[in-house]
Amino acid sequence: MFLFLLLVVAAVVLGLIGALAKGLLYLLVIGVIVFLVAMLFMGARLRRGGRTAGR
């Protein structure tokens, strides 16, 4: 879950910087890609079902 949240926060930060900074539109694209990867990661994790043993 920590990795998912980290990816979402990174996507939001990159997206904001890319949208607000002039000439850094590629950061917005990278932010969207990171967000999609995070969603795919979480979807695969939820689809797998069972939980692993906690520490």
Strand content: under 5%
Give the beta-strand count: 0
SSE pattern: HH
Helix content: over 70%
Q: Tell me, what's the shape?
A: elongated
From the N-terminal CA to the C-terminal CA, the straight-line distance is 14 Å
Major pleated sheet: none
Rounded to the nearest angstrom, the radius of gyration is: 14 Å
Low-confidence stretches: none
Decide which structural class fits the backbone: mainly alpha
Mean pLDDT comes to 84
How many separate helices? 2
Walk me through this protein's architecture:
By secondary structure, the protein is mainly alpha-helical. The protein contains two helices and no strands. α1 packs antiparallel against α2. The chain is elongated and about 45 Å long.
Short structural description:
The protein is mainly α and 55 residues long. The protein has helices at residues 2-20, 25-48.
Highlighted features:
single chain, elongated, mainly alpha, 55 residues
List the helices and strands and how they pair.
Elements: H1 2-20, H2 25-48
Helix pairs in contact: 1-2
